[in-house]
């Protein structure tokens, strides 16, 4: 997909004390050019990496957007612009990428407090709640991003929704494989009022298996599920559920790259 690019870098709620530098609005850039969706992801990722400082413990996200951020961190380390970074990867895939880039790695056992995590998302609602995990990495992401002081989310504008589930695409739930149909049915029944259908994620004709050896059930909603906290609690009460892909009240900043430029949204 190609879209017209950015005439400015804008900021919403820039006066909020996020600990990040605020951006001025608007800042003229070069004349409009056409950028692909992947180029927009890269722009959001590079903007997020500006928040990285030497000596930080960094949560390294997973997915096509986060990949650009990890590449950029590796590049800045190689150049010597960044020093003494410790990365905590959120998936085996990101672990491999980080190793190939020479980024020093650790884990939450050794570094239980993470300074900053940068990751993509599948959906972002107006309160900066997220759906994540369409790449299957939601559990490790939630553990790492739940341990960080700052969580910067990077998306292109196609990820913005009015309410979670509003894209009509999957809201993933990680479950244990044992009697998965039973667990999937319980999840579907839980959201009957929202017209929910629950489908096991299949890849290459087989159930998709997460880095943790579990399955993913994708939930699709016809209507808004309403109270997200109540929905989260109800899902987690089902035996067999490991974690779900709603990341509520976790993002501190969302960087959106879109047709009109970059917008930085900070949590109230
Ligand atoms: O499990 C995958 C992660 O939650 C990703 O961060 C999310 O799916 C967004 O991925 P992408 O940047 O490829 O759209």
UniProtKB/TrEMBL annotation:
Superkingdom, taxonomy of origin: Eukaryota
Keyword ATP-binding: no
SUPFAM superfamilies hit by this protein: D-ribose-5-phosphate isomerase (RpiA), lid domain (SSF75445), NagB/RpiA/CoA transferase-like (SSF100950)
Catalysed reaction equations from the record: aldehydo-D-ribose 5-phosphate = D-ribulose 5-phosphate
Span of the signal peptide: none
Annotated InterPro entries: NagB/RpiA_transferase-like, Ribose-5P_isomerase, Ribose5P_isomerase_typA_subgr, Ribose5P_isomerase_type_A
The protein's annotated pathway: Carbohydrate degradation; pentose phosphate pathway; D-ribose 5-phosphate from D-ribulose 5-phosphate (non-oxidative stage): step 1/1
Enzyme Commission code(s) on record: 5.3.1.6
Classification via CDD domains: RPI_A
Family (UniProt): Belongs to the ribose 5-phosphate isomerase family.
PANTHER family: RIBOSE-5-PHOSPHATE ISOMERASE 2-RELATED, RIBOSE-5-PHOSPHATE ISOMERASE 3, CHLOROPLASTIC-RELATED
Name of this protein: ribose-5-phosphate isomerase
Organism for this UniProt entry: Rubroshorea leprosula
